[in-house]
Amino acid sequence: MTPWEIQADELVACNCAYGCPCQFNALPTHGNCEAMAGFQIIKGHFGDTNLDGLSAVATMWWPGPIHEGGGKAFIVVDESANEAQRTALLTILSGEETDPGATIWNVFAGTLEEVFEPVFKTIEISIDVEERLGRVFVEGLAESSGEPIRNPVTGDVHRARIDLPHGFEYSLAEMGSATFKTTGPIELAHQDSYAQFAHLHLNNHGIVGSAAA
Predict the structure, then answer these.
(1) What's the domain range around 69?
(2) Residue 211 pLDDT > 80, yes or no?
(3) Is residue 45 part of a domain?
(4) pLDDT score at 209
(5) What is the pLDDT of residues 86-127, one digit of tens each?
(6) Which of 26, 42, 117, 171 could be stapled to 21 by a disulfide with Cβ–Cβ 3.0 to 4.6 Å?
(7) Is 77 contained in some domain?
(8) Domain membership flag for residue 97
């Protein structure tokens, strides 16, 4: 197994209500799952291949709960990545070179029925986990924006977090509100839905230490 490790910030948006039942082993809010995720690698490697500063975007769709399968996925990789870096990122995001069930990408891989050919594009991405602010943009394909949840009566910022001591994606994630739209092979559009901001620290074997926000 090729050793790899990444530290990254993520903004994930899906069609569920704030909190996302999947985080609690419950069924999705609307019966199915539609999601867009942006990852910005702060520091990382795959074997001898450096991954610092690269980013990727994934759009995903499942007809029902994720664990029931039948899903589809489409990945966009930062066009600045060289051939070795592209291969490395796609390997990690495909759940390969990973212990079974150790990462979110490995788990998702077993639920996918169709994975579209990846593309390499300029990705504009900015994520501030602590402030629950972020934007991910791929021209002509995907756009998401995340912000804090606000009290519907007063408009005041509301802060909530999810702590997963035995998670396979993050240890602690900040909750937010997202608006996102995608085109291409997977078309999605949602407003004021679930957003998740987290610092990731993962390797072949899962979460490395504490990835608390």
Answers:
(1) 4-207
(2) no
(3) yes
(4) 77
(5) 999 999 999 999 999 999 999 999 999 999 999 999 999 999
(6) 26
(7) yes
(8) yes
Q: Which residues contact 197 (CB under 8 A, 6 or more apart)?
A: 9, 10, 11, 127, 128, 129, 132, 134, 146, 173, 174, 175, 176, 213
Give the Cα separation of 111 and 133 in Å (integer).
30
Residue 195: inside a domain: yes
Q: What's the structural domain count of the chain? A: 1
Q: How confident is the model at residue 212, as a pLDDT?
A: 38
Sequence-separated (6 or more) residues with CB below 8 Å from residue 38: 10, 11, 12, 55, 56, 57, 123, 125, 127, 134, 136, 144
pLDDT band at 3 (very low <50, low <70, confident <90, very high): very high
Distance CA 48, CA 55 (A): 18
Give the bridge partners for 19, in sequence order. none
- Return the amino acid letter for 164: L
